[in-house]
Design brief:
Number of domains: 2
Shape: globular
Radius of gyration: 16 Å
Number of strands: 0
Structural class: mainly alpha
Distance between the termini: 35 Å
């Protein structure tokens, strides 16, 4: 079995089209299609993944199938998005990006992650930040063969 790779591209990252989360989603689906995405990662369904395709008017199943079957480079994916998005306007991109940059994680999941990382601030719930911490922790544990999450310090 090929080694799993934690997708360390943050949802806050955008490529030339300026769409945040698109590089991360491309990588997650590509890793999944290659049998290298760790268990538990969404890869096209739910959360920010479906919100992205829905916001831009992209058929989610076609988007996922394109990446899984064609395994495009990132710029090839952006060209595909330009061709297939029915709502690729500066306004739709700005609205989606605003959601990515400001959305809090649901209370239950945010609480679990704060507890796991030893974050005492009960108001810290920013979704992208908590997802980034989770990715970094998973990468650290895999690289160091550590079983426990890194506590905040």
């Amino acid at each position: 079995m090929p080694e799993e790779i934690v997708p360390l591209i943050s949802s806050s990252v955008a490529g030339p089209l300026g769409i945040r989360h698109l590089p991360r989603l491309w990588l997650k689906i590509l890793l999944y299609a290659s049998g290298r995405l760790p268990e538990g990662y969404r890869h096209g369904a739910g959360g920010f993944d479906e919100r992205l395709t829905g916001s831009l008017g992209i058929d989610n199943a076609a988007f996922v199938a394109y990446i899984e079957n064609e395994k495009p480079g990132y710029l090839q994916l952006e060209a595909w998005v330009k061709e297939h998005a029915r709502n690729l306007t500066p306004e739709s991109v700005a609205a989606f990006n605003h959601t990515i940059l400001t959305r809090d994680m649901n209370a239950e999941m945010a609480g679990e992650r704060r507890e796991r990382f030893g974050i005492a601030d009960p108001t810290f719930a920013h979704g992208v930040s908590l997802n980034d911490l989770d990715d970094w922790d998973q990468a650290h544990r895999r690289l160091t063969n550590s079983a426990a999450p890194s506590p905040a310090g």
